[in-house]
Give the backbone structure.
Amino acid sequence: MDQLPDFWRTEVFHPLSVHLPIALLLVATFFKIVSLWKSGETWNKGGSILLFIGVVGAWISVYTGNLADGIVSRNLCDPTVLKDHENSSLIMAWLFTIAFLLEAAYSFLRRGWLNHLVVALMIAGSGFLVYTGHLGATLVYQQAAGVYVPSDDCEEFE
Amino acid sequence: MKRIAKIIPAFLMLFLFAACESTDVVESGTYSGTVDEVEADKTEIYVKTDDGKTLELYFTDETSLTIAGEEVDFSMLEEGMSVEVEIEKVGKRLDPISVKIIE
């Protein structure tokens, strides 16, 4: 008789950790774009705080993704999608990290172009974020990456 | 300052794309090349073949690793070693059947 595997498997920590930074980084980008036209602390500072938490979350997701990679790769029919997912996620994480560092530099230097560069990097990062998410969803829904597939008779649930 | 504003994005894009790894998918068969990278915690190796392709190989329970016909542990693998790998292509996944260390 098949046994239902433990839910808290190593590969499960990746989907558990990715959704918060996805939401935070996209909202942070929106806040920062709005702050170019609207003055006020809410858009600018709010965007900065969301960016910081999102960057930390992004690197945690990269770490958990690396852990999951070693487990799910052996069962995928097309691991090249996983490689693209990995590459895209690293580009995304670095774009937002550099945007955060330049944001910190902007608070000291106060150069207008630096602020525009931060927003440009965040928009580019959001593009890679959406693409990374799309590839991640492809891995799960088309190749069952990290997914336990129940037996035909569902015996393990009895 | 404006020159820096132009240089930073160009430098960034170069840095980011250089950091990416790309791998190739090949047909089932035997290939010789050099171990480009070893990821011991994942029992995974990257092999650069003699014709310039990069193969990402995850060892399975069935993969045999040998030196001069003797079965050896995964920890023996090091970057720069010459190897001959027999691969089975499953979908677009490359399963290593055997890895022979030639040194």
